[in-house]
Design brief:
Blueprint lengths: L5 E5 L10 E5 L6 H8 L4 E6 L7 H7 L3 E3 L6 H12 L3 E4 L16 H9 L3 E7 L18 E6 L14 H26 L2
Parallel strand pairs: 1-7, 2-5, 2-6, 3-4, 3-5
Antiparallel strand pairs: 6-7
Helix pairs in contact: 4-5
């Protein structure tokens, strides 16, 4: 990451040094996951689409602890492995929007709320802000080489309401709270970085 782009990392001290934590990252570039993995202060386990586990990349991703997920249906084995990471005090990386898009946290899937409520792990919002300029890109979906990429870690927060409820209503309410927090963090990160 540091050889191809110019990462600027802000607020990494906000990631708890120990214990379960979920990093919720916006997703607008193909390098968002590797960039956060390379700049986070703790090892991260990401839920990654199974299509990425092809050729020599598959064994590499598995060796560094990444979790394969089948997005065509509810992948219970991936859910179990992700919950095990949190139960063992690890750090889980999630793109709450599901796939790459505008990276504005406008539409969240329920997975992040499920993991947060079920595990009790705090969520740290992460904004990855690269160049929005489309010129100078060798590969679509990547920021121009040698351009600055800002990685801004936010304050940790809890998604649940403290009641211990795990109902559909509780998850919907948690998703609303999460979306407010992530959107506010993204706005603050844009102000802070001038992006």
């Amino acid at each position: 990451m540091y050889g191809l782009w110019k990462p600027r990392v802000l607020g990494s001290w906000r990631v708890p040094a120990a214990g379960p934590v979920i990093l919720a990252i916006n997703h607008s570039h193909n390098i968002d996951g590797p960039m956060v993995m390379g700049t986070a202060p703790r090892p991260l386990h990401f839920l990654i689409k199974q299509e990425a586990f092809v050729g020599p990349l598959g064994p590499f991703l598995e060796r560094i602890g990444q979790l394969k997920v089948d997005r065509s249906s509810t992948d219970r084995s991936a859910i179990t492995r992700a919950l095990a990471v949190l139960a063992q005090g690890g750090a889980l990386g999630i793109f709450p929007e599901g796939s790459r898009g505008e990276g504005d946290f406008a539409s969240l899937r329920a997975g992040l709320a499920y993991f947060a409520v079920r595990s009790g792990a705090p969520i740290v919002p992460v904004a990855v802000l690269g160049s929005t300029d489309r010129t100078g890109r060798l590969v679509p979906g990547l920021p121009p080489l040698r351009s600055r990429v800002d990685v801004v870690f936010g304050e940790a927060f809890r998604a649940d309401d403290g009641s211990g409820r795990r109902t559909r209503t509780a998850l919907d309410e948690a998703t609303g709270r999460i979306q407010e927090q992530l959107t506010a963090h993204l706005e603050n990160a844009r102000r802070l970085t001038g992006r």
